[in-house]
Amino acid sequence: MKNARILLVDDEPDVLDFLSYNLRKEGSEVFTALDGKSAIKKAIEVLPNLIVLDIMMPGMDGIEACRRMRELPETKNTLIVFLTARTEDYSQIAGFEAGADDYLSKPLNPRVLISRLNALLRRRPTHTGAMNIVNVGNGISINNDNYSITVGGEQIYLPKKEFEIITLLTSKPGKVFRREDILHEIWGKDVVVGDRTIDVHIRKLRQKLGDDRIKTFKGIGYKFEF
């Protein structure tokens, strides 16, 4: 948590004071906002590593604020954790569909809070500058800093070879890449790999991104479609 930039968003000042105190004790730099609209403005201003966002707020609620943040280049890949007193399954589902990375319920034990946030922060780089993100189009972006692809608001982390394959395919959506060209581009011309190697990687990518994203041209190769 040390040196992490964290934005806390809640319409209850007492909750903000409680969370701020505990996070600052861990060495975090803490910023606060009282509603969804001001949270978006503050997030663009300070570029936090992580946002703790209450769901039930007047005006713009946390779900809508998260959804809008996921559409902005400055906050598209920022860690977002929902904080709420609601425990219904549908509110959790709505939160994850909006692009949340995790979900915490009130009242919070400070040790649990710190542990969960630490686990999330370890998953991503902690620098605050703009990440090396390529927007492919149609809500799809490639993050070259952490080997992830964002599709429909969902960020998916990929092993290196899978990431390199999807980066190649999305570089020219609609183009059919021949199998031999993919193998040479990803593994190099001096490395001999079996035909099944690329099939395994394509299958895993389809499991993560959806069967309709990557099309097979039998005996030729593959292409990526929106």
Keywords:
alpha/beta, 226 residues, 8 helices, 4-stranded antiparallel beta sheet, 2 domains, Arc Repressor Mutant, subunit A
Description:
This protein is elongated. 40% of the residues lie in helices and 23% in strands. Helix 2 (36-46) packs parallel to helix 3 and helix 6 (160-171) packs across helix 8. It has helices at residues 13-25, 36-46, 62-69, 89-98, 110-121, 160-171, 179-187, 195-209; strands spanning 5-9, 29-33, 50-54, 79-84, 102-105, 133-137, 140-143, 148-151, 154-157, 177-178, 214-217, 221-224. The chain is an alpha/beta fold. Strand 11 and strand 12 (221-224) form a beta hairpin. 29% of the residues are buried. Mean pLDDT is 84; it is low at 125-130. It has two domains: 5-121, Rossmann fold (3-Layer(aba) Sandwich); 137-224, Winged helix-like DNA-binding domain superfamily/Winged helix DNA-binding domain (Arc Repressor Mutant, subunit A, Orthogonal Bundle), CATH 1.10.10.10.
